[in-house]
Write a structure and sequence with these properties.
Elements: E1 5-10, H1 14-23, E2 29-35, H2 39-49, E3 52-54, H3 57-63, E4 68-71, H4 78-87, E5 91-94, H5 102-114, E6 119-121, H6 129-139, E7 146-154, H7 177-193, E8 198-205, E9 215-221, E10 227-233, E11 243-250, E12 253-258, E13 261-266, E14 278-283, H8 284-287, H9 298-313, H10 321-347
Parallel strand pairs: 1-2, 1-4, 2-3, 4-5, 5-6, 7-10
Antiparallel strand pairs: 7-11, 8-9, 9-10, 11-12, 12-13, 13-14
Helix pairs in contact: 4-5, 5-10, 7-10
Length: 348
């Protein structure tokens, strides 16, 4: 029998607890320790989940024999943590956006790759069956040459004035709609087409927040001619939970997809994929894969199953530190473009 992988979790907030429940449901994986500054959380986990608990990552890394860690802390804390994890030579899964600048991202990507350590970032849409299926259709040429796209994300994350409380209220801590939400929309674009070459026409707007943006609008361009737009709003109370929408217009058709379904319009029927001329409807139940434990969607379990498989079998990683660093370069372009437009407007 294969020895179970031993994982530790650093940060037991919403995502840390989610990953705790999922990882322990996977065959051959055991979460043996958790680090979090909350005495209430660590006391409850120690008493009822029977894991070792620590008040910070330093204690966990010093006190445990582990194969890997899940880093679920706000991104401002991650560089220090990732340096320490690298020193211990542990594989790591890190929640997005991973770190807060592209230079740090590239440094960690190179260092972990050089050390032969699995490095994965939780851009979870890459494990959603609707997005993976439609990406394959686009790669297969179903809608011809992609010409334009639209990536959108909506959530009711900030729907009232909460002042400056919490890490989401500051870019320095990884808050704001760009880091928290638009990073997902950017990654979905990159998952389909690779990282764009430049951005333009950016507008970052506040609704309730004082120090960070609540709405993000921008255009993204590729040297080959492909272009698209991105619109993200984390102050939209009409959505019950975070929702990504992605649309691609191609020379032979168009597709519209979200986490739960897709509509595809074709100029001509496609026998290979069983699709007719005109509109076609696909549901998640038509393309779904199977996971042993369902929490918040198949994709959350699938990404941790892939992380374990990458450690155990050296399977390819679907979203590496290098992928996440490329997203950070786009984020930096968005901030710079918005600042340049504001300066030009002020000078006019």
């Amino acid at each position: 029998m294969t020895t179970p992988l031993k994982l530790g979790i650093i940060g037991a907030g919403r995502m840390g607890i989610t990953h705790f429940s999922i990882a322990n449901a996977l065959d051959g994986v055991s979460v043996t320790s958790v680090a979090d500054p909350s005495k209430l959380i660590t006391t409850m986990l120690g008493k009822y989940a029977k894991v070792s608990t620590y008040k910070d990552y330093k204690g966990l890394l010093k006190g445990e024999e582990l194969d890997g860690v899940l880093v679920c802390t706000p991104p401002a804390f991650n560089p220090e943590i990732l340096d320490a994890v690298l020193e211990r030579r542990l594989h790591v899964f890190c929640e997005k956006p991973f770190v807060l600048n592209a230079a740090d991202g590239a440094r960690f990507a190179a260092a972990y790759d050089a050390a032969g350590l699995v490095n994965q970032v939780g851009y979870v849409n890459r494990w959603n069956d609707m997005f993976t299926h439609t990406r394959r259709l686009v790669e297969d040429g179903l809608i011809g040459k992609p010409l334009r796209f639209r990536s959108e994300m909506f959530s009711p994350t900030i729907i009232r004035d909460v002042g400056d409380a919490g890490w989401r209220a500051s870019h320095a801590n990884g808050g704001g709609a760009v880091f928290e939400m638009a990073s997902h929309a950017i990654d979905l674009i990159a998952y389909f087409f690779g990282a764009p070459d430049r951005v333009g026409g950016t507008s970052l707007s506040k609704v309730y927040s004082k120090q960070v943006e609540d709405i993000v609008s921008t255009s993204l361009f590729y040297d080959g001619g492909l272009a698209g737009t991105m619109y993200v709003n984390w102050s939209d109370a009409s959505f019950r939970k975070p929702t990504n929408k992605f649309e691609v217009f191609g020379s032979e058709g168009k597709l519209q997809v979200d986490q739960h379904g897709a509509k595809i319009h074709l100029k001509a029927a496609n026998e290979k994929h069983g699709l007719k001329e005109g509109w076609n409807q696909l549901y998640i139940t038509d393309v779904h894969s199977s996971v042993p434990f369902y929490v918040r969607g198949i994709e959350y379990t699938a990404q941790l199953a892939d992380f374990a498989a990458s450690i155990r079998d050296k399977a390819p990683v679907r979203c590496t530190f290098a992928d996440a660093a490329a997203n950070l370069r786009v984020i930096e372009q968005i901030f710079a473009d918005d600042a340049a437009i504001r300066r030009a407007g002020a000078a006019a």
